[in-house]
Amino acid sequence: MMTLSAVAVGQSVVVRRVGGERSFRRRLMELGVLPGTQMRLMRIAPLGDPMELLVRGCSMSIRRSEADSIEVHSIDTSAGSP
What we know:
With 82 residues, the chain is an alpha+beta fold. Helices cover 16% and strands 38% of the residues. The chain has one domain (2-74): Ferrous iron transport protein A (FeoA) (SH3 type barrels, Roll). The N and C termini lie far apart (29 Å).
């Protein structure tokens, strides 16, 4: 199991499960972060918080502690490469 907080800058992942408090999960769902959603970590602030994500063509930022509650799996970029 990998959480969003362990993702490297520039890496694309797919959401497996969103945990955390109910209000947090609801807010992410409103923003389009659902299981199966692809996202990319664009950058991390100099002190490590917050993290900027690209989700469905939009930028959003979340705290690293919040990213700990989002389970993801990496996208195999080597598939389909000649």
